[in-house]
Amino acid sequence: MNPAEIYAGFLKHVAQTSSAPMGLVVESARGCSLTTPEGHEYTDLLAGIGVAALGHGNPRVLEAIEKQARRYLHVMVYGELLQEPQVALASRLAGLLPERLESVYFTNSGAEAVEGALKLARKASGRSRILSFHGGFHGDTLGAVSVGGNPVYRDPFEPLLPGVGFMTFNDRESLGVVDSSVAAVIVEPVQGEAGVVIPEAGFLGELRARCDEHGVLLIFDEVITGLGRTGKLFAFEHEGVVPDILVLAKALGGGLPLGAFIATRELQRHLSVDPPLGHVTTFGGHPLSCAAGLASLEVIVGEGLSERAAVLGGYFAERLRSRLASPVLCEVRQIGLLIGIEMSDPQIVTRFVRECMREWLITGWTLHDDRVVRLAPPLVITEAELDEASLKMQRALARVPGSEL
Ligand SMILES: Cc1ncc(COP(=O)(O)O)c(C=O)c1O
Description:
Elements lengths: L2 H11 L14 E3 L2 E3 L5 E4 L2 H4 L8 H13 L12 H13 L6 E5 L2 H16 L3 E5 L8 H5 L4 H4 L9 E4 L14 E6 L15 H11 L3 E5 L23 E4 L10 E5 L1 H4 L18 H16 L2 H19 L5 E7 L2 E6 L2 H13 L2 E2 L1 E3 L2 E7 L7 H16 L7
Parallel strand pairs: 3-13, 5-6, 5-7, 7-8, 8-9
Antiparallel strand pairs: 1-2, 2-3, 4-10, 9-10, 11-12, 12-15, 14-15
Bound molecules: pyridoxal-5'-phosphate (PLP).
The site of pyridoxal-5'-phosphate has 15 residues, from helix 5.
């Protein structure tokens, strides 16, 4: 198909939910670049929203996929046959996590892992109420939408899960609603789609204490923050606050679909009794995804990419703060290589993102705060690439009306 045919087919036959898709035809992707059929090379500052932690086409990941593809693909629904790639990835994750996060249930996606975590919390606690946070995002299945913290995306789908309440991130007083009627609190340890909102020191610790006091399970959704993105392998390490259930996805599969919810074996057991098979999935923990995920994880750990993300993220944010300084810039928020650039209004952001594309940069805004440009480049990006990207963003912003100093 030529690019025009691909574009026409995309609009006609690939169901759209974006009113203004980026619309780039991808010819190939390597490292931090995406190339179009016309030979235009874009620097990918989003990495498929944090999926491509090692950039695109990492040779170790490709080799693991190829090797596993020759052994076997899908063989059986989740948890019946012993598949080495699943066992190896689960064991490696457990070895990197605190003791209580020892048992991994693999899913296909983040939302599906959130669903599993919510079901597990309800079943284990015998309670039904779930608390979450305004601005939070946990995926787009019905359960995940129910705990999503933006009414714009909930209201059209009501009635949703009953008994869901919302607290305010970084507001300790709002934690007062956590009581013994609650099964679980679900929270992103750094809110991504809310505009990269970083917790104040002690906030997550106070939430943990409040949950402990009332026997409430604490679920950390690290779908975007997990696996090195925030400068630690897991964002909960920043404050040493360990959840009862950890949800991962995005970078977990090394570019293939994979999610997981992780807890103690004792807790996970609730999904295998009364009734047995209380949670099943056909494709969850696909051997290709697990093999790719393990190869990717080994690179992240072996090459110290989390630590590198902390240093590079600091460097990039400092460049952005000085180069984007203008009346329309409100704040640059950064933790590792997860960055939110808050601007004065959504129109400025839309125009800026478009101008960035004209500079061959892929960026995007966050779903629950369209005043924020979110960046999540591959963890392997270099200082030189970030420096150049910040210069291009400076040029892009200079073309946005109102940005003149
Ligand atoms: C924090 C968080 N949780 C859950 C999800 C849903 O993951 P998926 O799109 O794989 O269903 C996302 C997706 O962006 C996310 O950022």
